[in-house]
Amino acid sequence: MCGIVGLHLRNPELYPRLGELLTGMLCEMSDRGSDSAGVAVYGDPQWSPRGKGTVSVLDVEDSPEQMAAALHAALGEVSVHRVDETLLVSADVAAETLHAAITAHYPHALIAGFGANVAVLKGVGHPRALTEAWGLSHAQGWQGVGHTRMATESAVIPAGAHPYAVGPDQCLVHNGSFANHATIRRDLKAAGITFDSENDTEVGARFVADQLAHGRDVESALKELCATFDGFYTLLVSNNDSFAVVRDAIACKPAVIAETDDWVAMGSEYRALAGLPGVEKAAIWEPEPEVVYAWTR
User: Hey, which residues does 243 pair with through a beta bridge?
Assistant: First the structure.
């Protein structure tokens, strides 16, 4: 089943409340997926310090102090901040450079996300327990994306949880299934793209990231995905300053969008949006099949 939420804030006065609002939205979707969950938070000054590259890392046994020391020779001063099971690693280098250094030192680590402004947290367990362990309600920023998972395609492990954040400051969450993901996975592997899981969603995320890396914008990348992938899906894709939603050709999987002057929000069901400030005055609609809805900061 799975639940998707996303919140794009237009009013800077709401930035301090991003985590609070995202927590409420995500927890409302707990009964759509209670085996694992994840979030991508854009702009929190502690989780992704401004002016530095940040990489979100799982499956590393070293302590934050040990990891910082291991990376010092290659990168200089490195900050490592633990949030539950995730290590948020920041340094005064491009996120891609930091990503490469971490994978060189820790080849078996799971890179949950990387970029200049994004922190990605995901794990196995009930969404309410995870958001509490992360302290998500205290997070700040201008944009957040979340997912609650009911596994149908791959193992219930952190690598199978969403978001899939496989490009710089990018992430994708998905409700549904891709029927032809195995064929597209083979094509992407033949082009040199590597994978962290057997999840069909990761194929969609890698496909979109590849499209963006070759110069497409988010809207055209998602239109290409609709033309290439078969199946039933609602997708939410975010970048550092953008937020986009698309559904399959028959709009099989539920989705609701709401928009005010202060924010744009998306949820698998309206109840995920019901607690947002000013929602009673929002324009609310169900997205049309294969129409890409996109907003930019």
Answer: 238, 295
